[in-house]
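The protein record filed below.
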Amino acid sequence: MAGSRPLSLPRDTGGMTLPDGYRIIPLDDRARLDDVLEVDTWAFPIEHGLDELRQLPSPLPWGRMWGIEAVEPPAGSLAPANALAGMYGAYDLRAFPVPGDETACSWVTWVGVHPSHRRRGLLRSMIAHHFAEARGRGESLSVLNAAEAGIYGRFGYGHAAPTLSLTVPRGAELRPVAGSDALRGEFLTWDPEAHGDLVGALHRSVAQVPVGIGRPGWATWETPELRRAQDADPAILHRGKEALRLLVVSDASGQAQGYARFRRSVNWDGAVPDGTVEVRDIVALTPAAAHRLWSLLLDLDLTNRATVDMLPVDDPIMHLLIDVRAAEPRLRDLVWVRILDLPAALAARRYAAPIDLVLDVHDALIPENAGRWRVTVTEAFGPASVERVGAGGVLGAGVRGAGGVADLVLDIDALGAAHLGSTSLAALALAGRVEARDPRVLAAAAVAWSWPIAAGADWEF
């Protein structure tokens, strides 16, 4: 079958051996789409059947999709030979925002194991394969959204950015912003061909706002597959709501300053409407644009509220609302970061303050990361030099930075959690996840690893 040739890597990939009877293979074309969808619908229950799902624009990263085949089913099994038992994919993101810069990363997606093959170590084998494959491509970070929060910490991923959900009452009072009234708002029916490039450009640009600072973690739709999936508005996913709408706000010269994509739904209690504006994504390049977008969304007829998921925790709306409490803010985890190549990852970002310290890092899955590393930053918001300073192991007396006393001791998941600047090393120390030689060094490190704007994204994949 096309796409089913065995991978030319040893079965022991990344230090993890596949169980007997399984092999890992590349899934490199649409000939295996039905197999992928079959595993996906077992891993993530959905009301739609395969016939409907085949019609959706696929975000699958063909060329970086991998499957585990059950080569020979057990005696008496009704499953065919070479059935897909598990799978994962990885998106190529070449411009993933980290504090003060952008870097290449591997974003893990479509991870699933068929329930007939659970509890056999297949996920662990796929993660080990992913680590080896991504490191071989020179990618220093692996990033993902976790369907279940308890899974990925054991593989060294740290929760690096939460996300915010709001239910904002219609007519909620906003603080005034100069220039908001001068912006023109235009409501449109979403048309990917007419509006897709504009929305894509605005979404990409907001990663650099505020200018000179930017928002770490703001992943954009870099691959053609992701862009098509984000542009699509298939009727089977409307779930009783209208087709996707678009709101664009522009300045007097006609230059777009922000957009929102949304759907409305209305229930009626007798003659009384109870409508909801479900905001899919909202992007503003200026304070005035944010104010104008929300002013218009909160004043639509027949609606009582606007809901929005996956906002960064410091999104402008949190500082525009007079009564934040009425918007019922709710938090959950969103972005998880796994450092694959420690010196490359730490050197690719910027730091909010000068620092010179030694980290003693534990990494049970990638031994190359383990040990002591000296991190030196000479100026605020500058880059770091990262060098190994001695063998890892038990702390002992000696010269700091030469294999002796380390300033901070932590596991790789804690370093990943702090990598985007939103999770404080000092807060991790309060939870026992960072051990500090000196409280003053911990304070300096927490400041250096921080960032003025919270990390976050506004979509999942």
Q: What stands out?
A: The domain at 342-449 is CATH 3.30.1050.10 (Nonspecific Lipid-transfer Protein; Chain A). The longest strand covers residues 83-98. The chain has eleven helices and 19 strands. The two ends are 28 Å apart (CA to CA).
